[in-house]
Amino acid sequence: xxxxxxLRCGALLPASMQRLLLGAALLALGLPxxxxxxxxxxxASAAAAxxxxxxxxxxxxxxxxEQILRVPVEVQDAFGKPSKGELLVTTFRPAGAGPFPxxxxxxxxxxxxxxxYKRQRYETAARYFVRKGFAVAVPLRLGYxxxxxxxxxxxxxxxSEPRFVPALAAAAAQIAAxxxxxxxxxxxxxxxxxxxxxxxxxxxxxxxxxxxxxxxLASINFAGGHGGDPIKHPGExxxxxxxxxxxxxxxxxxxxxxPQLKSLxxxxxxxxxxxxxxxxAWATAFAETGAALDYRLLPAFGDDGHALFTGNSDxxxxxxxxxxxxxxxxxxxxIAAPPANPDxxxxxxxxxxxxxxxxxxxxxxxxxAKKPRAFxxxxxxxxxxxxGDAAMSRALxxxxxxxxxxxxxxxxxxxxxxxKQP
Length: 422
Fold this sequence. Notes:
Layout: H1 15-28, H2 37-40, E1 50-51, E2 67-76, E3 82-92, E4 100-106, H3 123-131, E5 135-140, H4 164-183, E6 188-198, H5 200-209, E7 216-222, H6 240-257, E8 262-268, H7 276-287, E9 294-298, H8 308-311, H9 313-324, H10 357-368, E10 373-377, E11 383-387, H11 391-400, E12 408-412, E13 415-416
Parallel strand pairs: 4-5, 4-6, 6-7, 7-8, 8-9
Antiparallel strand pairs: 1-2, 2-3, 3-5, 10-11, 10-12, 12-13
Helix pairs in contact: 1-6, 4-5, 5-6, 6-7
């Protein structure tokens, strides 16, 4: 792990200072800063967020108070061309009136499939944070999905001469805009904010952190970077040295404007976009500036560890619980299996505390599923089962997402964990 000591957090940089930060990044990369930089720098619109109706036939999850908002933004691409639109932002909240700390989750990038992106949710991660008491915001950024026609401000243009600075500045400006709008809501604690992102969203999270967002306590980067081809050039991104210099520039921004900020970077041994030698070098460059950093290199996951965030939350949720506890977020997000009930055999379908053929069929499917697996039910007779990553969380979610009644676990793997109350 790479760790450096942090100090006290700074304040938000106004638009003029954000332009200076972009200029500093350009200088760090050895690129010229032209007079027209102020016009070409991405800037988020200050217009208010508005509620948006759910799409036809789309059901929002009641148990985590899922909502959809629109946040207007305007940025510019690498050629100075404006790109604007209303970001589709999915939000989740715990029960109660708040105020809740906020976490914003930023998605990655697929150049070929960016027009196919749907509304971003990251439900498993969102439910993890809701269990910890957070409100969650997940924006779909400009250039993706229904916003693809707004242009592609996050394009680095070419692999031979990538333009990472404006691409990441555009993404960071959108992150900052959504945070600002969420902080204005009455049930959000504007003094306790986290940023988390995956892949391009991870590096954009680091970029946004360097701008000194007010109330920002921590920045979490999963497999962050930009550019690359996991098929033709596995582990070797475009512009490796440029990315290293840019991470150093972001570290300088954090050290100057938010020295108390805690940063966690999570990579894997078999990331087919960014090999470990590159992520280590980037982490070293960032930490050498004095910015606090906890760098973790996790074991290989599947065929491509780049997918760890969405594919293996069981590996990172305990890590985040550990990282966030010193910041005051001590409620665990990890679900612990209840104690086993030795009096009931998991194969005994008759012991199931819900009746009906649908419930029995669901339980048989649970028993036939691979482990890890979990089965949940509630007093209204609803059931849910899941297997694989985050099985307990997903079983509970399938059971209670459209119900006003809380669900509980009945069985985990080969063990019944529910006991009838006397």
